[in-house]
Structures are given as C-alpha cells and as structure tokens.
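ENTRY TYPE: paired fold submission
RECORD: A
CONTENT: sequence, then structure tokens
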Amino acid sequence: MKSHIGLAEWAMLLEKKEVSSVEAVNYFVERIEKNNVALNSFITVDADEARRAASVIDERRARGEALSTIAGIPFGVKDAINTAAMRSTGAAKILDNYTPTFDSSVIKKIRDAGGILIGKHNCDAFGHGASNENSMYGAARNPWDVSRVAGGSSGGSAASIAADLNAFAIGEDTGGSIRGPASFCGVSGLKVSYGRTSRYGAMPMASSLDTVGPFARSAEDIAMIMQHIAGHDPLDATTARATVPNYVAEIKKPIQGLKIGVPREFFMDELDTSIRMAVETTIKEFESLGAKIIPVSLPHTSYAVPTYYILVPCEDSSNLARLDGIRYGVRGAAEDLYHTYTASRESGFPAEVKRRIMIGTFALSHEHFDSFFVQAQKVRTIIKQEIEAVFNTVDVMITPTTPEVAFTVGDKSADPLKMYLSDIFLSSASLAGICALSIPCGLINGLPIGLQIMAPRLGEARALQCGHQFQQITSWHTQYPLL
C-alpha cells in the first residue's frame, strides 16, 4: 500500500474499493506499532474498536449506501478532547483513569460521518506549552529528527500526520497549538476562527480563545474535514450562527487579484535568516499566481505574547479548579478534604500547569486585577482592532509561522519565558479570534519551515484557498521524513 498519501487520496481509494476501511486501519496500526515507541505520538490506541468500526463502514459500502468523503478513514485526536469510551487524559496524570461517557461535538460529527477513531494523541498537559515537553507521558518527538520537539501543545497530532500514523487529526489551538506543531513537523494545520467549530467536550484551557481544528497533509485535506466539523452547535453558545461555505469548492478558485498583506513586524531581527528567505521566496510564488503583495503594519504585535500570557493563566486558574480528585480522575491519598485536593493536584499536574494557575490567581487577585487582567483585555482589544483595520485593505496576511525551526528537546524547558516567545507570531491571531493556516514552505537542514496565512474571522475558505493554490505549484506538503 502506498504510504504518506493525503486524505483526498484515501477517500478515492475507499470509494473505488481499491482498499477497505479495515485494511486502512491495519495499515496505520502497523505504522503506529513500528514508530510510536520512538515518537511517543499516541498516548492511547484502540485498534480493536477501530477495526470493528471500520468493518461496519465496509459493510455499508458493500451494500451501496451513500457515504461521506471521510467515511472509513482513520484519524486521531488530541488527548485534551473528550472521546466516548476512550481514555482522555489531557496528558496529565490527574486524569490518567478518566474515560468520558460522551464525545466532544467535533468528534461526534466526524464519527457520524464515518470517520474511524484510532487513538488519542500526546500533547502538553491541558494545552500548556509550545513543545509537548509538558506532557506527563513524556514528550512527543519530531519525525524529522527525534532529538527535536514536535511543537506544542498539539505535538502528537502533528507528528502523527508527518509520520503517516493516521490520515488526519483533530487538535486544539488556543495560542498556536495547532500552527506551531504543524510548522515544526512540516504538515498543514488550521486554527479556526473563534466560534467556527464547537468547543463542547474539549477540555477548557482559556475559554475565550480555545478553538478545535484539523491537521492533515494539505489544505485540500483540511477543507474536506472542515466541511464536516464547521457550524453552529446548540451545545456551545459561542459557535457562530453563520452559513458554512463549500470549502472544497472554494479552494479551487484562482487567487489572481487577491490582496495579500505582509506585516513588517513579523520580520523582526530574531527571525531566522533562512526562514526569512524561504518566506520571501513564497511571497514571489504568490505573486506568480497573480496576487498583489501589500506591505502592512500591526504596531502592537510585540504586545501579543505578554497579553496572551496574562489572560490565558487567568482563565486557566478558573477552568482547572474543577480538577480536584473528587468528582472524577485520580484522587490523592490524604487525611482530610483540603489535603485531598492538594495531594491530587500536586501529583496530577505538571510544573507548567501549576505555574500558570499561580500566575492567573495572582493576576486575578483583588490587589492586581485592574493592573494586569483589565489592562491585558484593553491591549487585546487594540490588537483585534488593528488586525480588523488591516483586513479592510487586504484579503489575507502571510507571515512566518514560527521564528525558528524545531528546537532540541530540553533546549528551552528550563526557561519558561524563552519558551513562551515561541508563540511570538501566533498569539495575535488568537487574541483577535481570526483564522490562521500553517502550511509547509521549505526546509532548513532537513527541518520544515511553516508559512502562516491569516484571514478575517470566519474566513477559513479564503485562507485554505490561498494555501491550496500555493500547494498546486509547490511540493513542500508532499515531502515527509524517512522513518
């Protein structure tokens, strides 16, 4: 069976009955068994249940039933997203024994469309991190070089696509947790607009920024997934009551005459020279497609990371209060209620989770609320307004996804501030609630480079259109690591 093919090709093979869904599951299970020890991409795999679900799809296909484009195709999910009857740990030991009784809304939509859940991906615990080193199950490794990080927090999901361990993946992006890993692992990943997909059933980190979105090999594959997961959800009041476009049709439109903004603040001195050159080459590729390149400015970009790292810990400290070892999860042994709470959290949370809870609790305290939280919300509004103003003059913006390629495991783990700056190009889109796509656009010494395409809120079709048209004239998205 041909390896490293995209979702669209898997769909074609299944539709033509050149391969069965059970055979597809077996293919990926074999690859997981061969590679997951080195990559640590999956925390949980349920091959038997995947085969059972696949056999049902094969029977339906044999009867001639009309099936969706993703029916019978195996996928994986970030472990911070709930999946019925499959352990969901959030990569934290406090949930080591937690098996949800329900699917998150996005996963239910995929399963209802016939997607085959094969397992749960490693991640930074509850989404806290940019390298996947904050998982209590060990760091996910980068398939291009296992001495390097896969990115975070959805590192296991990105690594699984790069290593061909599943056909597509569902991750979660609060401040770059899909785009950063996609860049480091050389795959495509979409941070959807806030409200474009449902957050119901995703373990909350920062409720005003969390989004659930897809990883795949190409923009075309992501468009296929978005067709099934986008839309209003009555279980999530923050989802938009907006029409879901035909993403698969929209991406095929040419981009001639499209206005692409290039914000100068994203080409700072700290940007790796090779990444700068790769993105500049990419800009010329877009010009060759007929797009108009327009320099733009986002003056408050440098404030995005500090704003993000005040607001997110504040929401963390509230959301994680529900994890106390009493109602579900692993309970620490103690002599009274208070010490049961502290024992459960001491052993069940990694250091980064505890750090963010403490930062958030401090910033929300009576003495500091106005100085930190309120001021950060004001800056967030300024950043959002600046981005919206630029989108009044351009259709999309393109930037590097990250300022560097994947770094070595342990290189930044001792310096939280250094780690936080990995999100320097990612936080702005999250604070503004817009969508952003990362696609591969080059290699440096055998390591992938990511290009970020930002579009206005609910403008996923436009971002995917640009990504797809770029991928029609380049081959970076077809390259993969040799394992």
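RECORD: B
CONTENT: sequence, then structure tokens
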Amino acid sequence: MAKELELKYGCNPNQKPSRIYMENGELPIRVLNGRPGYINFLDAFNSWQLVKELKEATGLPAAASFKHVSPAGAAVAVEMSETLKKIYFVADAKLSPLATAYARARGADRMSSYGDFIALSDECDEETAFLINREVSDGVIAPGYSDRALEILKNKRKGTYNVIQIDPSYKPDPIERKQVFGVTFEQGRNEVKLDESLFTEFPTKVNSFTEEAKRDLLIALITLKYTQSNSVCYAKDGQAIGIGAGQQSRIHCTRLAGNKADIWFLRQHPKVMSLPFKEGIRRADRDNTIDVYISDDYEDVLADGMWEQFFTEKPEPITREEKKAWLTKLDNVALGSDAFFPFGDNIERAHKSGVRFIAQPGGSVRDDNVIETCDKYGMAMAFTHVRLFHH
C-alpha cells in the first residue's frame, strides 16, 4: 500500500492537481484495477463505512449503491421473493448472500443507481461479480475478491473497471478535517453506535417495534448516517426502498423518498411485470421505460408512439385508480429521519407509502403534532435523540 495516490483531476476536469494521501502511515486501500477518480474515492470511502456498519449491526452481508456521495440503495442479505427477483432482473442468476444484498441495493432505485459505485461488506464472490458485470457501474470497493470474481471484474469496461480493496481493520483518526475556501474545519468523527438500544422511548400509543421493523430501522438510520442532509429513508424487508437526500426542507425529503418507495412497489404491479418488451432492449432503456410507464403522463407518451421502440405490442396503460389501489397494499414500511420531523405533514405523507414504524431524534416544538398524527394512523414511533447530519 502507498502513502499517496495521484488522481487524474478533482471533482471537475479543471481542478488540478488532485490526490489522496495520508498524513501518517499508508493508505488503507489498494487499487487492483482501473484508475479511480476523486468522486469515486468519496463514494468508495463513504459507502464502505455504511456497509461495514450494516454488517456489524445486523450480522448479515451488506451492499450499497452510491451516486454523488449519497446512497441510491443499501441492503442486507435477506432472501428475496420471486417477484423481487423478477423486478430486479436476477431471476436467472445464482444468488449468494452477498449477491442477494447487492441485487437488493441496486434494485431499489435502478435509475439513480445507473453508473454507481458499489460497496460490499464481505469478500466479493463470483456470484456478486457476475451481477456487477452486467450493470453500468463505475467501480467497487470490498475487503477482498475471490480469484474468479477479480477476473470477471478486471474484464469489465474493456479492462478499465475500478476495483478497490480496503483493509477491513483500518480505523481512522478520531478527529477529521477538511478545507473549505482555504479554511480548515475540524470535528470528532461521527462514531455514534446505532443499534436497538435506540428503540426504547415511544411517545406514541403503539409502543413497540417488530423484529423486522428494528432491522429495517437500523438499515434506514445507518444509511442516513452517510447520506447528504437533510435526508429521510424508507426501508422494508432488509433494504432501503426510498432515499431522499440533500433537500433544504424535510417535507421535500419525505415526499421525494416516498415517491421512490411508491415506484419501487409499483414496479411489482402485475401489469408492469408482464410488459411485452422486445428482445435485446438495453437494461437502462428498459428501466427508464418502466418508470415512464408508471408515470401519470404515460398515456400521452403512448399516443406519441414511444411504445413501438420497446414493446412487441401496445401495452394497456396502468390507470391512476389502479395505481392508487395497488399502493394501498404497501404496508409495514419503516422510516428513519436524520433530524426531527418539524410537523405532522411528514407523517401524513409517510402514511401514504405504508409506513408503520418510525425512528427519529425528536425535539421539535411541534412534537405533539407529530405524535398525534402517528397515533391517528396507529404508527409506532421511537425518539432516538441522535441526529445524523452528514455534509
């Protein structure tokens, strides 16, 4: 391992010179293939911390899909239904536990994950490398790679795919620093431990979480710890299903993430799963077309003849009434927030996406309104008293 690594450029091509380096000691990573850039490393180091904590919190292999220093998806290895395998397009694949975690992380928001950076909590196996190889991605970070997995990944993108190995025992200095406008900022690292001990204070009438909800809330909170703030995360069945990042208003986070959770569930509608795609459609085109099909303006698009590009026959639109009826089946969703909910409107929006369980710091002057709204819908909410801002 080296003490420093010169990079092609920084965030943008005009930002030179660029490098990553250690003040003391050697870098905790080795580049096994490719030439990762500045943003690649930001994604890699943030996403690695996320999956490392998910593995420690749940005991399950974990994976994350990162874009622009926020997760598009994060998940642990919970067995998938045949429906999920189909909408994630992995029904034909052999799935190890780690591959299952990656398929879930990548499948949560496939449009946002296009060109992602991947983090894996465990040694990358052949099954996971096979899934990565057929997706559009910038690179992967993991504590190790099997010989066959490394062979597969080294051949991706004409041999230029970025493969990083990280020392899993590496522990950074407890004080972190960064410069903005020539001024150095310094703070203690956010090493707060997120575990089930946070779920003890329930101000709501429903005052307990199921075991599945505890797992999903930990996934949501750990995901938020590495998501640009403001942020909220909807989670279900061992994975994030909707992440709202970097919004100035919390209700906008809640709406954005809720809309993503709705799209995730609408992709499981029978009409979506039976869309008559032509053979040979590119994966990205198929994903984008599904999102257009789900959207409210699809009938206008159908009239424009777009369907002829992708379908063997003109598909019947999914009506607003059908979508509304389908979304009533979405239930037992967990919701985490990186700071308190200031008003009950966030809970009203969360209810529309099947949220039953909430974990948030509490401390708003309108906590009473938030609690009252939770009680109206029979939601269980815990005050964690832990804020998770990340910038």
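NOTES ON RECORD B: The chain has three domains: 4-166, 190-266+327-383, 274-317. DSSP finds 15 helices and 15 strands in the chain.
STATUS: closed
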